[in-house]
Inverse folding.
């Protein structure tokens, strides 16, 4: 029972919706002020080890590839549902690069994106910048860990989380180099929506750019 409670607490990914709107349209959120966070919600941080769910200690493409249950290319499809500290986003698959998910994949899966809009603020979870509706991405995903014997309900079996908040999402046909996000900048969502990540540390940005280059030559 205790393990199931932890699953329910994990960002509300499986069960608990927040008190905000049930869905969000990114086009209406352009003026939201950007706020970077490291999952400091006291309920989550006390109950769950965040490192169990996201691995940000990744150095290159081969390591990221090895840690992924599913690697797919495609685009956002449908509404984005609002959960506590995450958006649940439909993602239509155009190409499967790796599949060790142990499920029969439909054309559209779901991805929990660990960032969201809260009133007039864009809360960015550990560097993750939300996918745009009109852009094709390659995603590096894994199943949300559940206790042994737990049975998936509804669409949980085809719902995934990024392997890493920093290194799991890359826009295809985009050769731009990412730059460091400076916390003293007063930026809105429309200023940063095209960035791959929002990171304050140069080494994280360098690793992201390196993996992005490696993806483009694969």
């Amino acid at each position: 029972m205790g393990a199931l409670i932890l699953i329910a607490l994990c960002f509300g990914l499986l069960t608990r919706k927040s008190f905000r709107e049930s869905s969000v349209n990114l086009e209406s959120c352009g003026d939201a002020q950007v706020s970077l966070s490291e999952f400091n919600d006291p309920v989550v941080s006390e109950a769950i080890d965040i490192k169990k769910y996201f691995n940000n200690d990744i150095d290159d493409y081969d390591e990221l590839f090895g840690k992924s249950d599913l690697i797919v290319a495609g685009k956002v499809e449908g509404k984005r549902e609002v959960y506590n500290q995450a958006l649940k986003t439909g993602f239509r698959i155009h190409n499967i690069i790796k599949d060790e998910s142990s499920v029969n994949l439909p054309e559209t899966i779901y991805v929990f994106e660990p960032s969201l809009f809260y009133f007039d603020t864009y809360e960015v979870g550990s560097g993750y910048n939300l996918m745009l509706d009109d852009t094709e991405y390659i995603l590096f995903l894994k199943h949300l860990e559940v206790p042994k014997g737990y049975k998936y309900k509804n669409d949980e079996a085809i719902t995934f989380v990024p392997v890493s908040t920093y290194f799991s999402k890359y826009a295809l046909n985009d050769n731009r180099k990412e730059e460091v996000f400076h916390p003293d900048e007063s930026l809105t969502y429309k200023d940063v929506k095209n960035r791959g990540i929002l990171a304050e540390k140069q080494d994280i940005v360098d690793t992201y750019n390196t993996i992005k280059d490696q993806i483009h030559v694969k």
